[in-house]
Amino acid sequence: MAVRHVLVRRPPEAVWAVLSDGSRYAEWVVGTAETREADPGWPRVGSQIQYSVRLGLCTLHNRTVVRVCEPPGRLELEALAGPLGTARIAIQVEPWGEGETLVVVDEHPLRGPGSRMHVAPVELLIQVRHRKMLARLARVVEQDG
């Protein structure tokens, strides 16, 4: 399981405002080239966001479904990556001190080949991706302030 965290210098409501805006997904999610469409009501449970991922000359069209939504503290997503399977991404948003927020992301493969290849090198790649993703999220939220 890949678990990472970041301290954001803004309150939880500011973090949630970015997480709950489907049109901003590509601004903070590493690997997402563009958001194609977010269901109305994102991040309501069952709503989806569709996006493109570019790997060299190849463009993949993936989607993510909201499985749990408890504003402003908890968002759990299932990323559907076609033949690679799915991953569970849990995001915790916790107040931390005065006007700051601790954001914790916990991701692991859930279904498909990815769930059987959950080994140290894959874990390392997810950790690196999360470090970049959380830094982007913090930057986006703090710039909005």
Total domain count: 1
What letter string, H or E per element, gives the SSE order?
EHHEEEEEEHH
CATH topology: Alpha-D-Glucose-1,6-Bisphosphate, Chain A, domain 4
Task: Give start-end ranges of low-pLDDT stretches.
Answer: none
The strands making up the biggest β-sheet line up spatially as 1-7-6-5-4-3-2
Number of strands: 7
CATH architecture tag: 2-Layer Sandwich
Fraction of residues in H or I helices: 25-40%
The Rg value, from CA coordinates, equals: 15 Å
Question: What is the CATH domain class?
Answer: Alpha Beta
Largest sheet entry: 7 strands, antiparallel
> Which word captures the global form?
globular
Content-based structural category: alpha+beta
The percentage of residues in β strands lies in 35-45%
Distance between the termini: 32 Å
Number of alpha- plus pi-helical segments: 4
Q: What is the CATH homologous superfamily assignment?
A: START domain
The overall pLDDT, averaged over residues, is 87
InterPro entries: Polyketide_cyclase/dehydratase, START-like_dom_sf
Pfam families: Polyketide_cyc2
Organism: Peterkaempfera bronchialis
Protein name: SRPBCC family protein
Defining key terms:
globular, alpha+beta, SRPBCC family protein, 7-stranded antiparallel sheet, 145 residues, 4 helices, Polyketide_cyclase/dehydratase, START-like_dom_sf, single chain
Description of the molecule:
With 145 residues, this protein is of the alpha+beta class. It has one domain: 2-Layer Sandwich (Alpha-D-Glucose-1,6-Bisphosphate, Chain A, domain 4), CATH 3.30.530. It has helices spanning 12-19, 25-28, 113-116, 120-144, and strands at 2-8, 32-38, 48-55, 58-70, 74-80, 86-96, 100-111. The chain has a seven-stranded antiparallel sheet with strand order 1-7-6-5-4-3-2. The protein starts with a strand and ends with a helix. 24% of the residues are buried. The mean pLDDT is 87. It holds the Pfam family Polyketide_cyc2.
